Input
Amino acid sequence: MLLENKNAVIYGGGGSVGGAVARSFAREGARVFLAGRTPAALDRVAQEISGSGGDVETEQVDALDEKAVDRHADAVAEKAGAIDVSFNAIGHGDVQGTPLIDMPFEDFARPITNAMRSQFLTSRAAARHMLKRGSGVIMSITATTAREAIPNVGGTGVTFDAIESLCRQWACELGPQGIRVVWLQTTGLPDAIRDTGELFPDYGTGREMTREELIAWLEGKTMLGRMTSLTEVGNVAAFMASDRAGGMTACAANITCGSVPDH
Output
């Protein structure tokens, strides 16, 4: 198994992305510690993992709360003996569908501020324990909007740009101590797009879209004619967190189905 005897903390572990990553990590042998603000969501994921024989624990943690993040990381490290992997999958509270010229600054800045605070705090908390052993992997997730210009996405694209830049800085500072910092770059995730019955923004197409229309439009922007699945997110995350990806740091695993070609 790729992550046998590894201890992994997943922030936002009750969400669609965090849950997919947690399930994959557990299948690959990791002991997973789910952290998030909603106990019921964490418990649902934990029950799935434990029902499949995985080793999992949950804790209510606000990733924007500095003291709470530090306390939780300290407790995990003390109990498990080490933190080998830290994955941040928390939501950012972004607002989409409004042109920047009509958007309140607070709506634009919220996802940037939330992402930078949570990414910094969770990375720092894990790194302080990883330094003691001279190894570890810090991980995050971004999307095509980090590289593409799409109208009416508010602060989302800037947020993903900022996450990737912060990851590169963590990587160059922590690399000499044996700690890798990587991220997944995905398309939109159709498995996580809920059908609320309301139309989605037009994103420059000229008309609002249903869920099916949005997915078809996004699929048309990829070379493979499809979007990233949550299963792929989990599987690639497990590989990137494993020793088999030991030479990779300061980089993304591009699983955008060809939507964002690397140069």
User: Anything to note?
Assistant: Residues 5 and 30 are 6 Å apart (CA to CA). The chain has one domain: 7-193+227-255. The helical segments are 16-27, 39-51, 66-80, 105-133, 156-174, 211-219, 230-241.
